[in-house]
Amino acid sequence: MSKSSTPTSARDSSTPLLVGACIAWGVATLLFFLLFTAPGEDGAQPDWFLTGINLLEIGAFFFAALLCFRNWRSSQIVSGRNVWFWIGLGLLFYAMGTVLFFIWGTVWGLDPAVSLGDFFYIFSYIFLAAGMFKAVLPRRLNLELPQWMMVVGIGLGGVLLAIFVNIAAAEAIAVPLGQVPAMHHLAQAPPDIAPAPALEAAPAEAPALEVEEEASSAPPLILQIDGMLEPLVDAVGLLYLIGDIVLLVIAGTLLVAFWGGRYSQSWKLIAIAAFCLYIADMFFAYAINTDTYVEGSLWEVFWTFSAVFFGLGAVVEHAVSVNSRRSPRRRRG
User: Fold this and answer.
1) DSSP letter (8 states) at residue 177
2) Which regions in the chain score pLDDT beneath 70?
3) Which H or E run includes 331?
4) What is the distance between the alpha carbons of residues 333 and 5, in angstroms, rounded to a whole number?
5) Could you give phi then psi for residue 62, rounded to 5 degrees?
């Protein structure tokens, strides 16, 4: 028996463990969302629930980044080491952005239009797109017309969905949902009843808002930075939209370019990860534009699913690459 069989068998045994860990992380996150959600009367989730879902998301992205960096350090990766370096760096920046948002929102109680976490997210999109593009670039994309139409269709679908989300959000703001039942009750009321008391009670909400603003424990420097970044809200929103569409197009190209063959499974998982990220971002964009976002909504699980699929893709790519580079010689007894 050759001496090289021991490390090879160790690699083979680690693959199912890592795959199982990724799947278990995704299932545990989904169960946490479903079983422990406890919204209050105002729809807000308790702090312990928000802490739990943030830790699950941050842990998933950090773990996926480590798996990508493991591929980067391996000389046997078929798709190229730099590919996984950029993807791992993007996942790491995404995790750091989530850490900053957790500190801003849950620890300090802030809700700025733009914060430092947004810039980590934007750079994560750039790094992820660079890594995925490097995976497609070396391949000869001799695609047929139906395949190119599929890629173009995915891109156009992403653009149209983003436009639809923005239009639907604008209509929801122009006609608030709570306004329709109020007008219905007003039409059924007798003409001699005046709605004046409701107008007098409206200013009572202002002191509560002032108390919430004063309750923040953030350092003054952080408040100054948030104020300086606030004018960039439109530019940041546009960069998010461009990043989502670019990732969606590259993910569709990955599905077409790596559809068949031995090395296609890992890139199918990477494409699914990009789709999960896009789905969660579209839900988030709609909620933010309609001012109905409540942290801890069920759709946020897609962010964690994205990290899980990135991690699964890295594990599968490592296993396939190692097995393909294995010596074909038979072991001697």
Assistant:
1) T
2) 1-12, 138-142, 174-216, 260-262, 325-333
3) none
4) 12
5) -65, -40
Angle at 69 between CA 66 and CA 73, to 5 degrees: 135
Helix (H, G, I), strand (E, B) or coil at 262: coil
pTM: 0.82
Query: Which residue in this structure is represented by tokens 């391996």?
Result: 74
Phi/psi-derived region of residue 320, left when phi > 0, alpha when psi is between -120 and 50, beta in every other case: alpha
Q: For residues 234 and 289, give the distance between their C-alpha atoms in angstroms, rounded to a whole number.
A: 11
Dihedrals φ, ψ of 168, to 5°?
Answer: -65, -35
pLDDT in tens, 294-305: 899 999 999 999
In terms of C-beta density within 10 A (0-12 exposed, 13-18 middle, 19 or more buried), how is residue 32 classed? Answer: middle
Instruction: State how far the Cα of 330 lies from the Cα of 68, in Å rounded to an integer.
Output: 31
Q: Taking the C-alpha atoms of 159, 226, 125 and 160 in order, what is their torsion angle to the nearest 10 degrees?
A: -10
Q: Can you tell me the distance from the alpha carbon of 240 to that of 224, in angstroms, rounded to the nearest whole number?
A: 23
Angle, alpha carbons 34-68-256 (nearest 5°): 80
- DSSP alpha helices (H): ranges in the chain? 5-36, 47-73, 81-102, 116-136, 145-174, 179-188, 196-201, 205-214, 220-229, 233-257, 264-289, 301-324
138-161: per-residue pLDDT in tens?
A: 666 667 788 788 888 988 988 898
CA distance 291 to 172: 10
* Tokens of residue 220, six digits: 């003054």
Please tell us whether the domain made up of 5-175+227-324 is placed in CATH 1.20.1070: yes
- Which value, to the nearest 10 degrees, does the dihedral of the CA atoms of residues 153, 154, 157, 163 take? -130
Q: Check: CB of residue 97 under 8 Å from CB of residue 118.
A: yes
The residue count of the chain comes to 333
Residue pair 91/124 in contact by the 8 Å Cβ criterion: yes
| Cα 332 to Cα 53: distance, rounded to the nearest angstrom | 51
- Asked if residue 254 lies in contact with residue 270, where contact means CB atoms within 8 angstroms, the answer is yes
